[in-house]
Amino acid sequence: MELVADETTISSADVKAVFDRASKVLVRLLQDGKSVDCGDMGTFRPSITAKTGTGVESAEKVGVELVDKAKVIYTPRVKVKTALKGVRLERAERVLDVPYKSSDKKKKKPEGGGGSTPNPGGDGHLGI
Predict the structure, then answer these.
(1) Radius of gyration of the chain (CA)
(2) What is the pLDDT of residues 1-35, one digit of tens each?
(3) Do the beta carbons of residue 127 and residue 101 sit within 8 Å?
């Protein structure tokens, strides 16, 4: 958001508001079965795939039960397709270990006389 704001006279909060609203409109239009042209970025269009082996003899027998999944197909414009042409790639000589810090607040320690050993079983929560 800040990069877009830096390129314009619009604040990053206003840019975020526009992106948030644009994503809601994009979803609504896709749900209505419409393609959405996003200018230089490209086009988003809804698509469905049929369950394998579910051919029917006539159009009258086509129904929602034949749909396997709905998806969005993104077709970038030439500007986006060619964006990575000419990018210089190089092999890194070493990999830096960067620890992951969760944005979740620290969990409260259970009250009582427990030791300091962490619970290896956990509660299945990844904290992501």
Answers:
(1) 24
(2) 899 999 999 999 999 999 999 999 999 999 999 99
(3) no
